[in-house]
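Batch job 17 of 40 flagged for manual review because the log was empty.
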Amino acid sequence: MSAADVQIMRCSIVEDEVQMTTSELCHATNTEAEYVIAWVYEGILSPSGSSPDDWRFSGNSLLRAKKALTLSRDLGINTPGVALALDLLDELSKLKI
């Protein structure tokens, strides 16, 4: 392997124990709080806490929010449609195991 074949990748491992605030999740996904709030009320994300100021999101929520953002922005799917698509993707994932 030569030096030209080496690629440097940067990534972050987000464990499920990590707890992010609404603001931190918005920053990590590069989205607006309105999206995150709508996703919570639609059941796409399940934070702990009782209000947007108190919500805490797990690492799994970060992955789910990124998928929701892709479905919403790139494919133009509305929030209920995103919820349905993610539920179906979860079911497919379970069937493959």
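Reviewer: the log was empty due to a logging misconfiguration, but the result itself is present. The radius of gyration is 16 Å. Unflagging and moving on to job 18.
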